[in-house]
Design goal:
This protein has 20 helices and eight strands. Strands 1-2 form a two-stranded parallel sheet. The protein has a two-stranded antiparallel ribbon with strand order 3-4. Strands 5-6 form a two-stranded antiparallel ribbon. It is elongated and about 95 Å long.
Length: 538
Amino acid sequence: MAGADARGTFLIGTAQIRADDVAAAATDPAVEVVLSAEALELVGLSRDVVQATIVSGHRVYGLNTLLGSGRDTAVEQESILDYQLQVVRYHHSGVGELLDRDEVRALILARLIGFTRGGSGVRPETARFYAELLNRGVLPAVPRDGSVGSSDLTQLAAVAAVAIGEGQALTPGGGLQDGAEALTTAGLEPLVLAPGEALALVSANSYSIGAGTLELRRARWLADLADTALALSLEATARYDGGGNLSPFSPAVQSAKAVDGQRISAANVRRLVRGGWLEDPRRQVSVQDALSFRAAPQTHGAFRAQITALAEALEVELNGRGDNPLADIASGRMVSGGNFQPMQLALAFEALRLGLAHMGISSERRIAKLYPPQRLIRQLNLEAARAGTPLASEDLPGLLWYSAAGLLAELKFLAAPATLGAPTLSADVEDHSTLAPLALQQLERSVEAAAKLLTIEALTAAYLLAEAQDTDGREAETRQLGAGTGVVVAKLSELLAGQLPAAVLVDRARAELEDLLAGLPELQIPGPGSPDDGGGEA
């Protein structure tokens, strides 16, 4: 099976690969990648199919023909080995910023996993070589742009270029060095490609898949952050506006509609506020809050459902055989196909951006409803200053709401479809593409914007809750925060007291929230049938 264990190894066998395990291995350079004997045997069997095809003399795309519009032009036998070099060099055409180290590791790891599914036809020694690139820290310099989502050709060619002793690699200090030098330093000889291997190295969606697993991890954290910001805003609106009705988060409401993500979101909020004033049955509360509060479990839950869909799409790609031509072990033939077109994955990237925009709308509307108390606090500070008290400092930058509004506008813009814009290529032979990498990159921007927006909401609510504690000596005793929200407010209040510039404050708060939510027991997702899963009355 695959997975990162306590010894720091990632074993690639023939069993199902999980996207979360790939992300964990890609983000930990200390993890050693190990190929099982069964996986290497499967790689060898797929190579046998290629060898048999070579002996047969049958014309096969990319093995003994040119690519794209040249698909029916034969490559002479004596040129086959030179053709491997030509394929790598031709496709090494990416532009733009370089992928970061985690993304490069994820890219190589995704392609290596693809070799072991038994459809690529590379030799076992080639698979082992890619494992050694990871284990010895050889990270090619991979330009971000160039793929239209019908195989991430340019990104994978940048890896293949280093494998054959060309191209450039990242140095440990963040610079660049020649690929051949990087191999020598790592004790590796350049890979000499066998017939058909060049296309197998570049014809996959490993950038979209590998980097997609990293974004899946960020999306999971973002879902928890959204629930946390919501819980804090519920606490704040309860103290300043008579809101904070917990009825929409009750098991009765959540069990009435079978949306798993919705129940999880509502249960997260209930655990965060548990033991606090919001649960006091004697509290006077509005019968209904605004929809940005009341229907938040539905919005957040839909986003969680989209996260599940992305995980499923990633695992379809990780565990499938996306090669063209496919070395089909069962029939012993090399078969032309279209499994390199990751449409399900591209659409999953698209859907998440739309879900993020809706979450952003709700968050910005909650921030707007927390603005009047801020204005009141500033007015009280001015009145106190007129009476001779030094003007109180602004712990919360006053126009963070405007920054949130700008971030929301960006989220809405990024929610537009990215996958519909590909032109036809290669003399109209490649007349449809998924643009999965663009959809992924737009998702990365969306996640970044949404993280800032939700952090602003959390900071705004935490500021108001800290002020409520300070202005009423009985507040802490009579209006106690929940077990989870209290921990978050205490941590964010420390940052707010530092009177940091707005940009620094948001960045540090985001980092604190990331660390905090990773260890906050109130956000442990309940199992089915547990008292907090929303499946019945508590």
